[in-house]
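task queued by scheduler; priority normal; single chain, no ligands, no partner chains; default sampling; output format set to C-alpha cells
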Amino acid sequence: MRILLAEDDDQLRDTIARGLREHAFAVDAVSDGDAAVSHAAVNEYDAAVLDILMPKRSGIAVCQELRRRGIALPILLLTARDSVEDKIAGLDAGADDYLTKPFAFGELLARLRALTRRRGTVLPATLVVADLEVDTRRQTARRGARAIPLTAKEYAFVEHLARNAGRVVSRSELVAHVWDENHEPMANVIDVYVSRLRRKIDGGESVPLLRIRRGAGIMLAGDPASGQADDGA
C-alpha cells in the first residue's frame, strides 16, 4: 500500500516513514500542507497521514481541499492537541480518524490497517484466495500448511493482488501502489517479482494462483478458469 505522509518535524517524519517502509508500505513523505495537496492531486494513495500543525496549509485545510476536489482517500490526522474541539474540527473537515501525539507506532499501524480495510468494502484482516492466506496484521502469507517467506516488497505486491483477488491488476496500478516516488522501478520489475512469487506461491502446487493476462496485467485467483489466456511468463 502507498501512503502519503505530511509532517513538518523532520525527525518524526523520517521515523514514521522508515517504520512504515519496514512494514511493507510505500511512503511519499512531505513537510508542508501545499506539498501534500500537490502530491495527492497527481498520485493514487491508499491513505494519508497528516499532521495538523504544518507550514503553508494545516492538516485540516489539506483535508478540506482534498475533499473539495473529490479525493476520497482515507485520512488520519496527527495532532499534539487532544481537545474535543480540535478532534471535531478535523473530523468535520473530512478526516476519517485522528491520533494524538505522542503515540505508539503500533497504534498508528493498527489505525492505518483499519482505515484501509474499510475503504470501499470492509475487508477481513486475513485475505483468503483458495488455499492462500495473507495475514495483514502479521504481514505473513501461507499456502495450506506451508509458510511462504516474503520480503517486505514481495509482501506488499501479494497483499495488493489479494485485496483485488479475481480482478486483473494492471502493471501501472501495481507500480503506483507498491513503490513510492523515491524508487524508480526498472522496466521489467513486475516480471521479476511475478517470477519470484510464482516460485514461492505456486511452486510444487497443482493449481496455480498467480496468473498473467497478456496485455492486461496480473491476477491472483483460485478459479482455474480465470487462468485462460495466461501467457506463461
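post-processing summary
- The helical segments are 10-22, 33-42, 59-68, 84-92, 105-118, 152-163, 171-178, 189-202.
- The domain at 126-227 is CATH 1.10.10.10 (Arc Repressor Mutant, subunit A).
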